[in-house]
Design goal:
The chain has five helices and seven strands; from the N terminus they run βββββααααββα. By secondary structure, it is α+β, with helices and mostly antiparallel strands. It has a three-stranded mixed sheet with strand order 1-5-4, covered by helices on one side. Strands 2-3 form a two-stranded antiparallel sheet. A two-stranded antiparallel sheet has the order 6-7. The longest helix is centred in the middle third of the chain and has 23 residues. The radius of gyration is 20 Å and the shape is globular.
Length: about 170
């Protein structure tokens, strides 16, 4: 039986890694989901450099532009929740309803942070020093690396990626 091989997406291009690894369902070890290319250390550095190059443009993008991107991601996840939820369930060995629910909830996270993009409200506070006020506002910090656990791969990634993107980080 032929199985699909999945490449890495780095700097706008699909590319092979230095090796492939089979991904099997833990609830059915005969179920090979696919072969996945493993990125090399050089490819990881290339991905980081691509994010650094994209950072200034993303950070300078308008609020409505960022909001639309996050909404589109959320819309796509929700529209494909059945398909992606089934794949997630196979990969994790969790019940189908949980896989679909995780994908749907991930789409909702992107929708939530899309709305947060437009709610640009700072905070002010009095200082302990007379005549001095404190002003707090959000600004991008730069490239963000995301490490997530295996048991909620879609939801945990969305919890971290959506707010990072919402506030101008690549």
């Amino acid at each position: 039986m032929s199985h699909k091989t999945y490449n890495n997406y780095i700097d706008g291009q699909w590319c092979e890694g230095h090796a492939t690894l089979g991904n099997y369902s833990p609830s059915d070890t005969g179920d090979l989901i696919g072969q996945y290319h493993q990125a090399s250390a050089d490819q990881a550095r290339q991905a980081i450099q691509a994010a650094r190059a994209a950072q200034p443009l993303w950070a300078a993008s308008g609020l409505e532009s960022r909001q639309q991107v996050l909404m589109a991601i959320g819309d796509e996840l929700i529209a494909r929740k059945e398909e992606l939820g089934e794949l997630l369930s196979r990969e994790e060995g969790k019940p189908l309803a949980e896989g679909i629910g995780e994908v749907n909830r991930s789409g909702q996270f992107f929708h939530y942070y899309a709305a947060e993009v437009l709610r640009q409200m700072g905070e002010t506070a009095a200082s302990v020093r007379p005549g001095v006020d404190i002003e707090v506002h959000r600004e991008p910090v730069g490239v963000v690396g995301i490490i997530t656990p295996w048991n909620f791969p879609m939801a945990t990634a969305a919890w971290k990626i959506a707010p990072a993107l919402a506030f101008g980080n690549a």
